[in-house]
Amino acid sequence: MAEAHQAVAFQFTVSPEGINVHLSHVALKQVYLSGLHSWKKRLGRLRNSFVTGVYPASPASWVFVAGTILLAQFWRLDPSMGLIGKIQEHLPGRGYLSEPTQAALCALAFATVLWLALILTMRSILKLLLSYHGWMYEAHGKMSHTTKVWLALVKIFAGRKPMLYSYQACLPRLPVPTIHDTMQRYLESVRPLLSDLQFQRMAALARDFEHSLGPRLQWYLKLKSWWASNYVSDWWEEYVYLRGRGPIMVNSNYYAMDFLYVTPTPIPAARAGNAVYAILLYRRLLSQEQIKPLMVPGTLIPLCTAQWDRVFNTTRLPGEGQDCIQHVSDSKHIAVLHAGRFYRLRLYHSGRLLRPRELQAQFQHILDDPTPPVPGEEHLAALTAGDREPWARARRTYFGSGKNQQSLEAVERAAFFVTLDTTEQGLTGPDPGRALDRYAKALLHGQCHDRWFDKSFTLIIFQNGKLGVNAEHSWADAPIVGHLFEYMLATDAFQLGYDVNGHCKGEMDPDIPPPQKLQWEIPEECQQVIQGSLRVAQALADDIDFHTFPFKQFGKGLIKKCHTSPDAFIQIAIQLAHYRDKGKFCLTYEASMTRLFREGRTETVRSCSIESCNFVRAMMDPAQNPQQRLALFRVATEKHQALYRRAMTGAGIDRHLFCLYVVSKSWQSPGDSPPARPLSSRLSSSTSRTTRTTFPVGVDSGRWMTMAMAFPTSSLARTCSPSTCPARSPAPRRMLTALGHTSAPPCWTFWHCSV
């Protein structure tokens, strides 16, 4: 209880002899350092807000403008054309100031107004420039004179040394597509999936919607687009994520995987110490806004960085009917789970971050603690893995006061969550393929009670030193967590490192108090709710057939040599494999980002197109020769890239239809109804542009098929019953041959579903 004694700043006792006061200088020092640290953070945030608020100008530019105006005044020049004199006439307190002082103050006031006007002008011009997307539709390696001039103007008005959020006010708003364009593109996307009769009926319904209900709903979206920063994102977060009542484990949460072939240290406490310290360095850069804003590769075009705001100190809180996202401005501790026991680990001591070696000692103390979990504590985290309604009711009933409330707040208000897993994972054992399957499943759902799925992300450390991340999806998309994860891996491996024995480098302070074990009093009724959530989560986890394997034969470099988009190649390969497996086409989902716009998140690319279907049929037709297939493949890839560009530039289909649907449910005249029951996506795919992330690829017969992109190797996955004999599909190899690549590698294995 050393930490409890240090937490008391003073004690006093009353006795017949009088009052005795005992001060704790250690505690007072901690209070002073904590307050100093807090004030430094506040002043830093205030400074960053000011610098970001005046971007693309800088505070130094005000000095230049003010100096120029004052110099002009000294030389008896009036650049204000009489405005400075007008200001001087209405200057309050003129009688108490000398003429030179009045002139200087009025000149400074005019300079400030002029400076602000210049900032607004530059920001408006930059926003207008960033609304141009013609550069995206030009052929690779070729640039028109218009685009060259546009890039030069962007470089002029984009400012220098931007901070993380500098471009936010300059980003354009997501445009609302016209009803006519959306209906045309919708019909085009469903044409390969419908018979002639079905398509004629769908077209008639679409025309009716376009001329009757659609314009009324569109008016509300237009109004919202003028008022809100983004007409989609808030509704997307609420209706797609927060109103979901099913488990977020598997259905929403995703994971990131460690290096496959390298383990920096086999000591879990040491790996946890370095990883947590690297993440805290990232958090410091984030709080200081020193992370450079992301740009479109090879350009000066900024992407929206709004999602970075909730990386840390964020938790999804369960609610009855709808969840909410809790974000606190700062948190000085993390929550740790090991062997069913919860701990609060403080991150600061004497006003500084704990060093990696000190963090290792803290984690080792948790690993060595023999204290057993109290009844109900071991499976407590299963509440976050099951359905949301039972968790919301249990949280309100059993965690609203006393020890449970304090301990739950320690978890929910933590910077992030850490699980010290009791298993070993990675490419281990006699069957590395199966080991990789277990590794992926451990990151995706674990034992269903050893991750806090509500936290923004959970860092998972395994017994053999491997690690990974499980992230909640509502607050941000995968690239944000991927950026953090890449920084953590790089800092751990190349900056921090380990000594010859595998321990963290550096010194440690032996006086740092150990982690505090959280206290719970979980009644029998709550334990029954926990077990109910655990059964739901385990049934969902058992329904996951997961198979991943490293694919090293070729990657995007070989595909680019064929003058083909790697993304289009993969998507068309998926179409071909699915048709070989099912004998039919289906609506396919691919995620595209819309972060060219303010607060943009994602849009759907419907990658099953008429052109891709024509190519697949040609591949299945033995009468077609390679030249004909190649021509159809080129057309299909060009079409896919056009669809992707549309989605990125705000001309997609699904988010517009989604918002129209939300408006229709909020306001709907009697007799109005959607034009038709929407088709569901049977395949859902996404190309990972982060280090190692797994995304859903499809759902069939209640089972998930996943596609794991593991840089620098990638892997595809199967979904089938354990007794199924997997069959191979040489789709990509044949595609490369059709593209004229004579040294095609062995076939890319697609595992087929027989359930």
UniProtKB/TrEMBL annotation:
PROSITE patterns: ACYLTRANSF_C_1 (PS00439), ACYLTRANSF_C_2 (PS00440). It is found in: Mitochondrion outer membrane. Its EC number is 2.3.1.21. One of its GO terms (molecular function) is carnitine O-palmitoyltransferase activity. Residues 667-695 are annotated as: Disordered. The chain crosses the membrane at residues 102-122. Keywords: Acyltransferase, Fatty acid metabolism, Lipid metabolism, Membrane, Mitochondrion, Transferase, Transmembrane, Transmembrane helix, Transport. It is an enzyme of class 2 (transferase). This is carnitine O-palmitoyltransferase. The gene is CPT1C.
